Amino acid sequence: MAVKNARKILALIRYRKARERERRFVVEGIRLVEEALQSDAPVEQLIFDRETLEADQRLQQFHREATRREITVQQTDRRAIRNMGENQNPEGVLGVVRELAHSRERALDANGPLILFDRLRDPNNLGLVLRTAEAAGAAAVFLSRGSVELYNSKVVRASRGSIFRLPVFRNEDLPALIEDLRNLGVHIFCTHTRGTPYYEFKQLARVAFLFGNETSGVDPDLRSISIPMTEGANSLNVAVAAGVLLFRQREPA
Question: How many domains does the chain have?
Fold first, then answer.
């Protein structure tokens, strides 16, 4: 059975321009579809491999939930699902999701640290950052212009569902954002190998951490913070560095 709008869905999977134009993206597999449904993400359509649906109770549960929410459901054969998706084993289900909308004002007023990225380009790193930030109670993530696309399939997979729940704001003008945060009383630190060790700073109620290869050029007045390592060690992966600083904020004062 042919999938309605198959070409459009295939374009959403393959092309950034299509995702940006349609303001939609595709999730593949049981885990991500389940996370999207449980997070009340704006799922518009689910496409099932008919044979797998008949044998898998979880897919049957997704089908019932989609029917209850009046989400469009289509069934097709395994070959069609495999040809449409990036994953050679898509586990019998694909979902089309609208871009998530978050309140910027609410995110800036929320408790929890903020994460800022200057031109973060690795999709797997961004996905891991989103998982870490959600686990550590971050209020929001802000991505500068020139960063990796948020709805890149690698980002979506690596986030393991955090992308559906954590507010993320894209294409930010970092100098303007930093000025806004200062006006709101947020203390902003940029990470730098020669910065003050993070454990020498007292914990602050409102804090933002800025990560990037050239963060010193964003604002020379920012306070630098570092994560000391043993001699000869390479720099930390940005997701690991974010985790160290974020979980430090969760420690009792």
Answer: 2
